[in-house]
Write a structure and sequence with these properties.
Elements lengths: L12 H5 L17 H8 L3 E8 L4 E6 L4 E6 L6 E7 L2 E5 L2 H7 L9 E3 L7 E8 L12 E4 L7 H8 L7 H13 L3 H5 L6 E9 L6 E4 L8 E6 L3 E7 L19 E7 L30
Antiparallel strand pairs: 1-13, 2-12, 3-11, 3-13, 4-5, 4-9, 4-12, 6-7, 7-11, 8-9, 9-10
The protein binds zinc ion (ZN).
Length: 293
């Protein structure tokens, strides 16, 4: 809204404002969250891999389709910025904006993390969230947002003139470059808007500006995902720590994050099929669009 152009409201302003809101997407028509299926598989898990993400840095990890991964708080409150790609095709990656539009500004158990066009399918499903008790607080804030893009050196330079190389954008870039053995320049174009794991955010009532609060996450809390397709993930332990204050680059207290990958027992997922790509061929016109790869 442009505050310096105060046009007078029309006579029927109240009437125009009073029309009923309509939810944009009917997410109930897409395959529903099969809580019993995931619960059954969760009872059979064996840990097959783990990564510690150091404070103010990033690490990549691999999760085969049909496996679970968990991001845990260890040592102290810490926000994580998550990127996901199709392991075999980096052009299919997490679509933060569409996930927000389909589900909500903040996600939790039962929500899906959707992929970019033309795939547009669930890449991962959230199967457990120890912070689901938080809900919406009196400021309208929630946990695990798909609003913020990720902290980055470009915005910081514009706003403060300070250069810093350990924002989440750079950490994710380095993690991907290392995992794929490509240059940072090549990797950077694949880094995308994140899921802000454990971050507590909302919009101010007065001006609808994006705000943050100190994360309520504590050691032992975790969010868990089921990989619907083969995933390459990257996680940054944000240099803003628990994101409770606006401090100078590198000044916030930070902690590591723990990523663990789990394999369910064979047979535990007999009813499950990897989701197909959207099926709409459109401008791409590729036959493989309907495949499950
Ligand atoms: Zn960050």
């Amino acid at each position: 809204m442009i505050k310096n152009s105060p046009n007078s409201a029309p006579d029927d302003a109240a009437q125009r404002r009073a029309v009923a809101p309509v939810t944009v997407y009917r997410v109930d028509v897409v395959p529903s969250y099969d809580a019993a299926l995931y619960a059954r598989a969760r009872r059979t898990l064996t840990k097959i891999d783990e990564v510690i993400v150091p404070p103010r840095d990033g690490r990549a990890f691999h999760v085969p389709a049909g496996h679970f991964f968990r991001i845990s708080c260890v040592e102290g409150p810490q926000v994580g910025d998550l990127n996901l790609w199709h392991e075999q095709d980096l052009s299919e990656r997490f679509f933060s904006g569409k996930t927000r539009a389909l589900h909500a500004t903040h996600v939790s158990t039962g929500n899906r993390l959707w992929s970019t066009f033309p795939g547009l399918r669930p890449m991962a499903t959230i199967t457990h969230d120890t912070l689901d008790w938080y809900g919406w607080d009196d400021d309208g804030a929630g946990i695990h947002d798909v609003i913020g893009t990720r902290c980055d050196p470009y915005t910081n330079h514009v706003l403060s003139g300070v250069d810093y190389d350990h924002f989440c954008h750079s950490n994710l870039t380095r993690a991907l470059a290392s995992a794929r053995e490509i240059t940072r320049a090549e990797a950077e174009s694949h880094v995308h808007d994140v899921l802000n794991v454990f971050m507590c955010t909302g919009f101010t009532r007065e001006s609808h500006q994006y705000f943050k609060k100190a994360s309520p996450v504590r050691p032992g809390d975790f969010i868990e995902f089921f990989a619907e397709i083969d995933l390459l993930g990257a996680l940054s332990a944000c240099p803003a720590g628990d994101c409770g204050a606006n401090l100078g680059a590198g000044e916030a207290q930070c902690h590591p994050l723990h990523v663990e990958v789990f394999r369910p027992e064979p047979g535990a997922l007999d009813d499950w099929q990897p989701p197909a790509r959207s099926g709409y061929l459109g401008d791409h016109g590729i036959k493989s669009a309907a495949s499950t790869q």
